[in-house]
Amino acid sequence: MHISPDPHADVALEVRRLSTHYLLGPITLRAVDDISFTLRRSRTLCIVGESGSGKSITARSILQIVNPPGRIVAGEMLYYPRDGGPPVDLAKMPPRGRQIRAIRGRDIAMVFQEPMTSLSPIHRIGWQIAEGLVAHGMLSKRAALKRAIDLLRQVEIPDPVSAAERYPFEFSGGMRQRAMIAMALACEPRVLIADEPTTALDVTTQAEILKLLKRLQDENGLAILFITHDMGVVAQIADDVLVMHRGQVVEHAPVRELFADPHHSYTKTLLAASKKLGMAPPPARADIHPGPRLLEVSGVTLTYPAQATLFTKPKPPILALRGVSFDLFEGENLGIVGESGSGKTTLGNCIIQVLRPTSGSVRYTDRAGRTADLATMDRPALRHVHREMRMVFQDPFASLNARMTIGQCVGEPLLVNRILSGDRLRARVGELLAMVGLPADAAQRYPHAFSGGQRQRIVIARALATDPRLVILDEATSALDVTLRGQVLDLLLALQPKLNLTFILISHDLGVIRYFCNRVAVMLRGEIVEVGSTTDICDRPQQPYTQQLLAAVPEADPARRALIGDVSR
Amino acid sequence: MSVTAAGLPDRAVSRLATASEARLMWLRFCRHKVAMASLVLTILIYLVALFAEPVAPFDPDKANARLVFHPPQMLHIFDGSVIPRPYVNAVRLTRDPDTLAVTYVPDRSRKVYLGFFVHGDPYKLWTVIPSDIHLFGPVNPRETAFLLGADRLGRDMLSRIAYGARVSLSIGLVGVTCSLLLGVIIGGASGYFGGRLDWVVQRLIEFIISLPTIPIWLALAAALPKHWSPVKTYFMITLIISLIGWTELARVVRGRFLALRSDTFVTAAFLDGCSRPRIIFRHMLPAMTSHIIASVTLAIPLMILAETALSFLGLGLQPPAISWGALLEEAQNIHSIATAPWLLLPGVAVAITVLALNFLGDGLRDAADPHAH
Predict the structure, then answer these.
(1) What are the b/e assignments for A268-279, b being 16+ CB within 10 Å?
(2) Could you tell me if the ipTM is greater than 0.95?
């Protein structure tokens, strides 16, 4: 990299001792606590941290768009204008003033996490991109729309002329994020703040977006502030890394240095957790010896009839699952992996009969050795099966009834199935809570008193209450931070031999699958394209889609930047 | 972000942890100052309605030809002394010798002292317990003090408003209870079972909502036989009002059911082996009670206004029954308003009650909805 003689020549933004606090009555929440960093041209600074570490609030503070009651209470944010003039302090500008408005979008632009909600649904893509140019008085409306088409071309959206005329709902998540980036780049900003821009996207789309950002940076010399919780992404694109924990910077170092020699214990935990669930070969799961066949899924198909309305022609029905077949053996961990919309959650719901398959059979062999087809079973008979087959859901905040105590939640399946009641029920609930590592007094508390990771443990305790044989984990760890993710998976693995459990893990995260499962099924558009042992699938994938999926996983090693095709730095 | 619970002792944190959803809602509600004030006011108004007999200083039906259109008297608290001794100046009725118009002239020489828990007109509390103790009134039971004036028959307006509160407010409550029952059952079934039943119910609701309310009420109320007793009329009027009112509640309940039906915790309850009634009554209904309470509070004022409107038009409750609407009926002609503007005071009572209930409902709704913060 070319190093300029003047150390300040390439500085775009300098943040010094920034503090943003939330004043909530008697409680002061130090969301951002005394942090400093510098953004330089053509370089990417990654802020990495778990949820609630204050990384998004840092980004929002720079543009003065912190939601009340949050307030910047101290610090300077010096922006160095492009004409080489003296720096201006963004922290001193009133949040609604003209000064900061002139900088927002034109000099410092932002890309948000949720591509689904950060575009206005009622305006055409082209106009949304052009609007900033017109608002800053840089171009006429007609010229701005022409420029919008150029920008769409730059962000590699096919057929940009007609794309500019479309509405956001006609775009996929990845396309919308590209459009967001085009919008951010419209005024040729010097600084781009990207707040978890790829978190809501599939890995293959994520790889494309990261590649795009890198290319645009090389072309325009952008200073990028990239916020993420994913160490793999950090390793792939960062030049410098800032690790945040509870509003404070715990470590600030160049990326290779940080990965090779982390100093702070929190950074070490974070790296260890992401390495564990990364693509490095996992500890051997050879100790799993699958027993007899538990489940035989054959030809399961689910179709949703298309809505026929008065004015439109009937459309063909939507095929959510197309003839899915696989076997599951006792004691094994089967992973079902696929991108969003591949039908993996639908498959889980069809196995446990929350959704009834349109055709096909799910033959389950119960503890007594009887085999029956769940797809045609009636509701009373299913209740019996549901004692042996349990489910853990994705969102730990939605899967507990907020009006019941933890004790009631966990005891519910035992109570309604008339297995236990009274003191024996209470004792069993205590036992279950201890098993998942929660204190005994948790039983009297309500779900709102627990964090996401703890709630997921509670849901696991509820799933284990009826002494099940098969547990379906539907994206059970994807809402959790990476350190918690490892903990929850380890907990399940530790319980498995004790309780003779079989798991089906549904996930989009190949790292998690690789760590947890000994067999994997890869799904694409409602079909299983490949099934095999984890090592075979991850090391010797046969299908092109599986290969593509594996190649897109960001590797937590800055020395190997396969994703953005960069080896120079 | 790190919640540094500075200033919060551990005990407070653990109390919050074991706080139920209802308790959290109450804590949120307490932060809403206007709603809290409205809650206190609403409770006071309902207490007045409940204890109308002792609260009213006089018998509301006691007419006195010499006190026709008696104007409100100013309440004085200190009679030149340090200890409060409330009194009103007595008034003398005079007639203009030329026009014969009645005028009331304050008689400064004579004072009517007022006291708390004084003996006055005898009454039977809730038509059962005989007594003559009034919350306040003239110390001498033979004297009169009209703080809010008197009507065309010389009856005390304050007493009549207190008695009217009983009918008007209880119609609100009874009407809402009927609406609630209809709304929860019909709306719940429509939302939970969905499909064809949902379609039919929704079209029915749309049809009922599209009907012009006032003419329907008028037609139904006019169909009530004149010779029915006031109690019978009262219940029929309530029923008529709630027949329209349930539709809104049914929509709220259905919407919540539809939203909850796909919630993960409901799926979890199904997989736990809960029966259908248990899923509905143990898991889904409690999750929406706060919303229902808020909607109910917002529905009561509509019922009160409906009763007032009907009675005002002479189709609801008829004298001798006393309700706010029936009282306002007396203020229908311009002559009485011109000579005795205090006849409109029942309207003020309606406005205050309706506002208080609306603020209360808003506060409850905000407290019930965690996303509002």
Answers:
(1) ebbbebbbbbbb
(2) no
